[in-house]
Amino acid sequence: MTEFRSFRAQAVVLRHKDWGEADRLLTLYTREQGKVRALAKGARKVTSRKAGHLEPFTQVTLQLAKGRDLLIVTQAETVNAFLGIGEDLVKTGYASYVLELLDRFTYEEESGHPSLFKLLVDTLDRLEKEADAWVAVRYYEMRLLDYTGFRPQLFECANCEREILPEDQFFSFTAGGAICPRCGQGLPNLSKISVETLKYLRHFQRSSYRDASRARPSSEVQKEAEILMQGYFTSLVERELHTPGFIKRVKA
Description:
The protein is α+β, with helices and mostly antiparallel strands. It has 9 helices and 8 strands. It folds into 2 domains: about 80 residues, CATH 2.40.50.140; about 160 residues, de novo design (two linked rop proteins), CATH 1.20.1440.
């Protein structure tokens, strides 16, 4: 039985880099095969038809052939370029953050995850169309944690398992969840989390996007949630994320 040499894939371009004299090496997240690397031959030539379809954030339909070491892009067609993202530096920053998280939390040669692909495309669409990125990004973070097996524990204390009461709590990156005030007195390396911020994070964890988007948190809650979630992600990947610093500089 002969192995198929070519296949079609729905993909989002996560990043690319120059390769050889005129080629481009792409990191893609595909609906069919998860994260893959592929070579776009001649993509840096002025005459290349593929180049415009293979920019980061772009959703594309690709024809991919199996080369000796890498997949080869033989055809590329843009489904959505999310042009509104590239026209706004803050949106570009948040879209880069979304792609960076997916890149850090997925591995090549995993199987495809259609729900994760849909989450990525839906989030890019929301970032392009909505004035405020905060809800779209927080919702994306929560779903990504669900899909990759790092769902934070927000309803019971991650240390003693007792139900979390409506009061200010602590959050432990290492334990992966909220810590009640009683346990929080004796544990190291905790962050404080207000009852309001915890309420919104819980809301995003158990709601559809339509319900989540009705959230109207104060600027203090937005800031606290953003710092907390980025701290949790940094702890999980065990190194600093690149994009939060870029977002901070652009906002300043």
